[in-house]
Write a structure and sequence with these properties.
The chain contains 10 helices and 20 strands. By secondary structure, the chain is of the alpha+beta class. Bound molecules: adenosine-5'-diphosphate.
């Protein structure tokens, strides 16, 4: 059992850099939480504060209800896996994995045979039994990563902390290791905090995804909710590939049904979005559209369709789908991900159909609020 609770946690580095600014996060027992955001957003600092590797400038961190602000890392009952593995090069895999247990053998009340059993069990779980006598230098990147994870598992900690553990692996291995870590976390049922800058990794791993920018949390929710109900434009753009597209415009007050007006084009809003838009008539807004909400065929776009005249700039086939880079008459660039059989050619002018039931309205600005987000869904000061 382990809960991790951060209350108004702040980190100011010497020199005045505010890396983390009063963040609040409550992680429940067995939860897999991923901190994600662009480089420099404060995610590693947050993780390192939970680990005790970085002093806290303000706020409290609790593990299972006990404030650990002043507790040294070794007494927090956590295990951390680093990006660079941090294995001892002169020790065998076996010794690397047994090291922390041997060091605290008396304190933990472990016999040599119990340590041996723990190491072998963890090795079996990770499929590295055959590598136990090798030195780290004789291992592949993926194998080293497994050893680093094994070293964390043997300690049976209350909390696993992962700091970009897959960044040094090639793309294919990263995907393999990703599912391995997820399976392992489910099996061990250990509370986990995982840091990555890779939104796809975050979305596939996390029970909950915490999207950070400039030291604050912008959204903390399930991957599906973050994708389908982003609280603001920053989250909407950060999550999803290709990223969400944005059309500038305003909601025309005289149209019935209400419509989003972009240049000379009018896109009728479905009831739900019209309700949200009713309080923002004639103000500059952005209409957010996911690339896969575009279709070239009126029948393929579900539900409430709107038509948008575009000129095709570039078509990128992707195997089963293709990405269509396009521009509207006002010069706004968009990307649509459409069926491979859609007949679109570069230079062509055509009507794209947009599934408006999946569109969002945002206030202007890089982190403009999603008009549909309820105030309590966005942490204070975000929208
Ligand atoms: P992330 O993990 O999201 O890339 P970090 O938590 O490493 O971000 O860094 C957050 C901010 O704090 C950045 O602006 C970074 O330059 C700064 N920072 C990180 N470590 C230190 C340090 N030891 N001293 C001063 N500033 C630091």
């Amino acid at each position: 059992m382990a809960r991790v609770t951060l209350t108004d946690v702040t980190k100011v580095y010497p020199g005045g850099v505010k890396a983390v600014d009063r963040i609040n996060l409550s992680i429940v027992d067995r939860e897999f939480v991923v901190l994600v955001g662009p480089s420099g957003c404060g995610k590693s600092t947050t993780l390192r504060m939970v680990a005790g590797l970085e002093e806290i400038s303000g706020g409290t961190i609790e593990i299972d209800g006990r404030v650990v602000n002043e507790t040294p890392p070794k007494d927090r009952d956590i295990a951390m896996v680093f990006q660079n593995y941090a294995l001892y090069p002169h020790m065998s895999v076996y010794k690397n994995m047994a090291f922390s247990l041997k060091l605290r053998r008396r304190e933990l009340g472990l016999s040599a045979s119990e340590i041996d059993r723990k190491v072998r069990e963890a090795a079996a779980l990770l499929g590295i039994e055959d590598l136990l006598e090798r030195k780290p230098g004789a291992l592949s990147g993926g194998q080293r990563q497994r050893v680093a994870v094994g070293r964390a598992i043997v300690r049976n900690p209350k909390v696993f902390l992962f700091d970009e553990p897959l960044s040094n692996l090639d793309a294919k291995l990263r995907v393999e290791m990703r599912s391995e870590i997820k399976r392992l976390q489910r099996r061990l049922a250990t509370t986990t905090v995982y840091v990555t800058h890779d939104q796809e990794e975050a979305m596939t791993l996390g029970d909950r995804v915490v999207v950070m920018k400039d030291g604050i949390i912008h959204q903390s929710a399930s991957p599906l909710e973050v994708y389908e109900k982003p609280v603001n434009r920053f989250v909407a753009s950060f999550v999803g590939t290709p990223p969400m597209c944005f059309l500038e415009g305003r909601v025309g007050g005289s149209d019935r049904p209400l419509a989003f007006v972009h240049g000379t084009q009018r896109l009728a809003l479905p009831d739900e979005l019209a309700k949200v838009a009713a309080g923002a008539i004639d103000r500059p807004l952005l209409l957010g559209i996911r690339p896969d909400a575009f279709a070239t065929d009126a029948n393929a776009a579900n539900g409430s369709r709107a038509r948008l005249r575009v000129r095709v700039l570039l078509v990128e086939p992707l195997g089963d789908r293709k990405d269509v880079h396009m521009t509207t008459a006002t010069g706004t660039k968009l990307v649509g991900r459409v069926d491979l059989r859609s007949g679109v050619a570069e230079g062509q002018e055509l009507d794209m159909f947009i599934d408006m039931s999946r569109a969002h309205l945002f206030e202007p600005g890089d982190a403009g609020c999603n008009l549909a987000a309820k105030p309590q869904e966005a942490p204070a000061g975000v929208c």
